[in-house]
C-alpha cells in the first residue's frame, strides 16, 4: 500500500458500507448501522475480495467495514483494497485470527482498527463511533499556525544542473532542521527523481491528480502523498513514457492550494518546460530559485527566465544559485556571468562528486547524507534565505532585466574567438 487511509470530511460519498462473510455478524451489525443513521442495505454478504470487486466499479464509502475471515493473505488483499478505495476512506477490518503481529501489520498498512470475531453490538458501536469521530477531528498541521506558508519553486536553467538535488535537500532541511511541515511536489511527471532521492516509491498520487483533478481535496492529499518523515511528504509520479502529459494545469493549481492548507512549506521541483505550458504555477510562489552553472547557455537561459519571471510572477523573489562550482576551468567567469544577468549570484555550491555518490548509495538527500560537507552548508544557507524571504513577504529587490546581445553582455568575444582558434588548430581526425 502506497499510503495509509487518512481522515477528513465525508463529503458527498456514502457514509458506510460493510462486506461481511457470515450471517451471524450481519445480524449483529445491521441494528447498529440503523442506530447510527445509516442504510442497513449497505451491509453486504461477502468478504474482502467482494469488497475489492465492488469498489473497483463504484465509489467507496467514508467508512468501510471489511471481513478478512475468508482471506488467505490478509495483508496482500488489503493492498488490493487500497488500490480501489477512494482517498480518505476509513477502513475497519474484522476477522478470526487473534495474532498481535497481524494486528500491528494491519494498522501499519493504514487500517483504522481490527475487530476480532465474534462481534458484539457494543464493540461495533464503539468502533463505528470512533471512525465517525475521525472525520470531525480538526486537520493536524505540525508547527506553529502563526507561521506563514512559504512556497518555493526550484527551476534548473539547463538540464543536469542539479535542481532536483537542491529541491529534495531543501525539502529535507525545512522538515528536519527547521521543523516545518513540508510538501515536495515533483512535477517531472515522467522522469522525476524526487522519490528516488528519498529512497521511496513514487506511487500514483500525481498521476491520479492529473487524471482526476475534481478528486483533489484534503482527503486526497493525505492519502496520495508519500511520507518521507513525520514532517515531509512527497507527491510525484513515474508515468509511462509512452503516455504524454494531458492536462490543462488545473490539477497543479488545486494541489498548490491544498498544500497551503495542509503544510507550512511547499517545495516545487519545476522543469523548465512547465513554465511555458503552465505559467500560472508560479502565481502564489514566494521564492523562485534558479539553479544555474557558469556556461554560456546557462547564462542565456537565466536571462530569459528572469525576464519571464518579471512578467509572469512579479510577486516571486528570484534567487540565483550556481551549482557544481569548479575551483577553476569554468566556461565563463563568475564576473562575466553576473554582468550578463545584471545581478549578483546569491549562492554558489561547490562541486563535490564524492558527496553526491555517497547520497545516492545511502538513498538519502544530499543534505542529509553529507551534513558536514561545505556544499551541504551552502544548501542550509539557501534554506535560511528562503525562509527569510518568504516571511518578509518577498521584499528583496529585483534587478531590472534589459534586452541586448548576450555576447555583448558577456563580453566574451575574445573567449569565443580563442575557442574557435583552438578548434581550428585541432588536427582533423
TrEMBL record:
The keyword DNA-binding does not apply. Keywords: ATP-binding, Nucleotide-binding. The keyword Oxidoreductase does not apply. InterPro entries: CheY-like_superfamily, P-loop_NTPase, ParA/MinD_ATPase. This is Pilus assembly protein CpaE. The lineage of its organism: Bacteria, Pseudomonadati, Pseudomonadota, Alphaproteobacteria, Sphingomonadales.
Amino acid at each position: 500500500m502506497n499510503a495509509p487511509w487518512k481522515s477528513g470530511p465525508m463529503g458527498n460519498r456514502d457514509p458506510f458500507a460493510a462486506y461481511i462473510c457470515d450471517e451471524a455478524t450481519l445480524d449483529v451489525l445491521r441494528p447498529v448501522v440503523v442506530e447510527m443513521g445509516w442504510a442497513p442495505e449497505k451491509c453486504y454478504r461477502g468478504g474482502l475480495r467482494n469488497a475489492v470487486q465492488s469498489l473497483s466499479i463504484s465509489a467507496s464509502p467514508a467508512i468501510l467495514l471489511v471481513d478478512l475471515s475468508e482471506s488467505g493473505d490478509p495483508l496482500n488483499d488489503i493492498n488490493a483494497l487500497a488500490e480501489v478505495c477512494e482517498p480518505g476512506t476509513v477502513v475497519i477490518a474484522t476477522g478470526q485470527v487473534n495474532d498481535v503481529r497481524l494486528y500491528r501489520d494491519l494498522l501499519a498498512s493504514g487500517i483504522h482498527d481490527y475487530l476480532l470475531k465474534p462481534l458484539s453490538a457494543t464493540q461495533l458501536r464503539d468502533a463505528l463511533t470512533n471512525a465517525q469521530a475521525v472525520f470531525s477531528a480538526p486537520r493536524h498541521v505540525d508547527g506553529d499556525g502563526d507561521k506563514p506558508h512559504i512556497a518555493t519553486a526550484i527551476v534548473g536553467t539547463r538540464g543536469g544542473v542539479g535542481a532536483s538535488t537542491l529541491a529534495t535537500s531543501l525539502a529535507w532541511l525545512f522538515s528536519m532542521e527547521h521543523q516545518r511541515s513540508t510538501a515536495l511536489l515533483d512535477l517531472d511527471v515522467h522522469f522525476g527523481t524526487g522519490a528516488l532521492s528519498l529512497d521511496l516509491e513514487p506511487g500514483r498520487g500525481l498521476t491520479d491528480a492529473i487524471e482526476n483533478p475534481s478528486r483533489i481535496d484534503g482527503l486526497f492529499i493525505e492519502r496520495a502523498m508519500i511520507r518521507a518523515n513525520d514532517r515531509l511528504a512527497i507527491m510525484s509520479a513515474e508515468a509511462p513514457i509512452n503516455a504524454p502529459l494531458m492536462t490543462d494545469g488545473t490539477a497543479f493549481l488545486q494541489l498548490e492550494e491544498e498544500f497551503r492548507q495542509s503544510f507550512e512549506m511547499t517545495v516545487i521541483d519545476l522543469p523548465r518546460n512547465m513554465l511555458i505550458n503552465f505559467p500560472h504555477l508560479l502565481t502564489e510562489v514566494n521564492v523562485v530559485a534558479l539553479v544555474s552553472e557558469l556556461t554560456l547557455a546557462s547564462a542565456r537561459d537565466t536571462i530569459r527566465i528572469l525576464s519571464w519571471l518579471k512578467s509572469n510572477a512579479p510577486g516571486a523573489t528570484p534567487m540565483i544559485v550556481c551549482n557544481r562550482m569548479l575551483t577553476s576551468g569554468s566556461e565563463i567567469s563568475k564576473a562575466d556571468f553576473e554582468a550578463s544577468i545584471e545581478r549578483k549570484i546569491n549562492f554558489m555550491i561547490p562541486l563535490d562528486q564524492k558527496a553526491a555518490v555517497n547520497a545516492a548509495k545511502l538513498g538519502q538527500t544530499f543534505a542529509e547524507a553529507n551534513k558536514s560537507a561545505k556544499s551541504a552548508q551552502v544548501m542550509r544557507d539557501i534554506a535560511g534565505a528562503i525562509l527569510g524571504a518568504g516571511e518578509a513577504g518577498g521584499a528583496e529587490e529585483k534587478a531590472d532585466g534589459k534586452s541586448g546581445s548576450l555576447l555583448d553582455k558577456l563580453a566574451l568575444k575574445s573567449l569565443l574567438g580563442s575557442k574557435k582558434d583552438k578548434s581550428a588548430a585541432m588536427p582533423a581526425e
